[in-house]
Amino acid sequence: MVSFVITSCLDDDNNIEYSPDATIHAFALDTAGLGSYKFTIDQLSREIYNEDSLPVHADTIIDKILIKTLTTASGVVTMKDKSGNDSVLNINDSIDLRKELIIKVWSTEALAGISPNQTKEYKIKVNVHDYDPDSLRWKYMNKIDDQIVGEQKSIIFGSEVLTYSVVGTKLYAYKNSLTNFGSWEYKEIEGLPKGKLPTSIIAFQFNRSRTMLYATSNGDGKVYESADGEKWNESTMFGEGVELLLATLTNNDVSRICYIKKGADNQRYFYYQTNDVPKETLDKAENGGKVPSKFPTKNISYTVYKSSTNINSVLLVGDTETATLADDSKLETTIVWAYDGNKWVEFSTTSSVAYCPKYTQPSIIYYNDLVYIFGQDFSSIYVSNQGLFWKKANPKFSFPHRDWSKGGTPDPDVDPEFRGKTNYSMVLDPDTQNLWIIFSKGSASFEEEVEKEESTKATTTEPRTYEHDSEVWRGRLNQLWFDLANAKK
After folding, report:
1. pLDDT of 410-460, one tens digit each?
2. What's the CA gap between 183 and 54, in Å, rounded?
3. Would residue 472 count as lying in a domain?
4. Residue 21 CA to chain centroid, in angstroms?
5. Contact 73/108 with Cβ under 8 angstroms?
6. Is residue 82 domain-resident?
7. Is position 92 within any domain?
8. Residue 37 belongs to a domain
9. Other CB atoms within 10 Å distance of the CB of residue 148
């Protein structure tokens, strides 16, 4: 029920008293099935409206709706008829509230002719969501550069997103503002190995220093640092033999940067440093710090979430060199690794029912209190509460998929398609909860299951292939858009 109630100051005496009161004292709509919504009445502006919008598609209910309660001192309320004349409003007749409705409240003095002007007009506005709050809404922003045709890596640094890619034989950084998104600027990188895409990039701040970017490059065992993402130098904060930067984690005002080093025995080991004690420390909580064979070796993606013990923890995924299977089947899975500052733990599932399928270049995000994973091909998104048991996400939380039965080819402006795309990078803006996905120019292909015969519901697979330019997309859950809009973000 949509309702609004204010305290009435009417006299309980049965004698008729002429009053200039022309205000609405109670108002309710018969909105069975929609739940309870609090309405606000503004006596100064003479507006009645609901702050919490009704669900999307509620216009199919409010186009013919009954006013359940409309209490005034006189009991007489009018509205304009089709001829523009005042007509008494009968609350037993349904009305259309898809548009704003102006009603006039008459005081008893006005009805008696004592003070004809003692009336008040009110505007009733029923707010309805334009978008489903549970849907992920995507917006095509622009191209980045059609010269980018291969792998890429992106990171948020300050209020900007930096995307790295090798074009020809040169490594470039492409830069854009997250707060004032526009054209991309790009520069050739100085100080990193020529023509090689960094294998990992992380932002971290050691005490008594500014936040810096740190990166690794394939095979040289060095860590590089940069204050702007464009000019790089070999870092003195790390020893030799660093293979991969993994994640950063903060608990109790102490931050740590986690990474993998190869030892003299050619074994890979977990290491970390903290912002207050910049010293390489072997993370030997389990198995002497040795990195398990199933741990990711490239294309690392991680997110931080607050665990059930109220401690910030890392959830990490990436590409592996060995197959990772569900324990009760031969199904390949994406394994999540968790780290709470004490040790790395494999979150492998023992069931082929609650597993996350194998993704190439998987991405993981903690979003709206849930954990999501997706990857190349972009055919699906999987969701979990804590990163252990997985299921396919609500169909509303998905990527743009076009209707191929219409023919033609995808157009990012009007008929977008994500499926089949490969070379991409992803960042999540923590301030706005915008999810940014950047695609390189290239070819895409996938197989789609379609109905073979509508009468039998038999299905077959159809190959889909298409070419696409570089694309930049921004997505956000509608509910978060509403929440952040109310918070003026």
Report:
1. 999 999 999 999 999 999 999 999 999 999 999 999 999 988 766 667 889
2. 38
3. no
4. 49
5. yes
6. yes
7. yes
8. yes
9. 25
